[in-house]
């Protein structure tokens, strides 16, 4: 089945530790995105990538890092520099990258990160 | 002003009711429009695209008014399973492609 997977579903981290969230898609989509959602809030864009080996900062990139070495993978690292990392993290992909297009984004099931 | 604005609700309606959600967007260059549904503690899922001619999918009807920069979603004959948060989504391509999500409108359908 084609889709987007994220792992783990739940993640607990001690303060001061870096942690990496996985996002994989087998939809052959060019663009991939990372969002953060806090309780009762909307989505906020962390990073996005429209093509392999390229990525751009979103609205709240501080304290996060990403890589896009393969088309199907876009891992997100939450570093110790992120002041309030506890949140629901959502990865999404979109068929068209730099070309624009009218297609929309499809989301993975999310990772719930809690900092203890 | 937010780029995409929605009434946060919550809307509390009885089963069988008709409910309408509104959304406004600020950039007249916006290209594409969508409604997503997000259940509690789950990811957003595409509900339907929105076209200027209006489109319908069963009990759901979406409308777009480009002149007023306004999008709507109408749900007829509400079901308990319609309880969720509905997100208005707009895309634009001005010096780079961008997708903007509204904060969502919460709906509770009661028996």
What does this protein structure show overall?
The complex is a heterodimer of chains A (116) and B (111). Chain A has strands at residues 4-7, 10-13, 19-25, 31-37, 43-51, 54-57, 64-66, 76-78, 87-94, 106-107, 111-115. Helix content of chain A is 0%, strand content 48%. In chain A, 38% of the residues are buried. With 116 residues, chain A is mainly β. The radius of gyration of chain A is 13 Å and the shape is globular. With 111 residues, chain B is mainly β. Chain B has strands at 4-6, 11-14, 19-25, 32-38, 44-50, 55-57, 60-65, 70-75, 84-93, 97-101, 105-110. In chain B, the strands form two sheets. In chain B, strands 2, 4, 5, 9, 10 and 11 form a six-stranded mixed beta sheet that branches. A five-stranded antiparallel beta sheet of chain B has the order 1-3-8-7-6, with no helix packed on it. In chain B, a hairpin with a 3-residue loop joins strand 9 and strand 10 (97-101). Chains A and B meet through strand 4, strand 9 and strand 10 of A and strand 5, strand 9 and strand 10 of B.
């Amino acid at each position: 089945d084609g889709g987007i997977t994220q792992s783990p579903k739940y993640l607990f981290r001690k303060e001061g530790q870096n942690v990496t969230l996985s996002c994989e898609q087998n939809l052959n989509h060019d663009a991939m995105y990372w969002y953060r959602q806090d309780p009762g809030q909307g989505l906020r864009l962390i990073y996005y990538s429209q093509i392999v080996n390229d990525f751009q900062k979103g609205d709240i990139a501080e304290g996060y890092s990403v890589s896009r070495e393969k088309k199907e993978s876009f891992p997100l690292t939450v570093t110790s520099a992120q002041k309030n990392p506890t949140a629901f993290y959502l990865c999404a992909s979109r068929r068209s990258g730099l070309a624009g297009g009218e297609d929309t984004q499809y989301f993975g099931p999310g990772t719930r990160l809690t900092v203890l | 002003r937010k780029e995409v604005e929605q009434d946060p609700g919550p809307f509390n309606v009885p089963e069988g009711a008709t409910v309408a959600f509104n959304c406004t967007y600020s950039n007249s260059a916006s290209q594409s429009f969508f409604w997503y549904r997000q259940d509690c503690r789950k990811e957003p899922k595409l509900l339907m695209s929105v076209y200027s001619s209006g489109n319908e999918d069963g009990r759901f009807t979406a409308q777009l008014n480009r002149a007023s920069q306004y999008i709507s979603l109408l749900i007829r004959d509400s079901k308990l399973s319609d309880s969720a948060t509905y997100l208005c989504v707009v895309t634009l391509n001005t010096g780079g492609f961008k997708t903007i999500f509204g904060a969502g409108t919460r709906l509770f359908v009661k028996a």
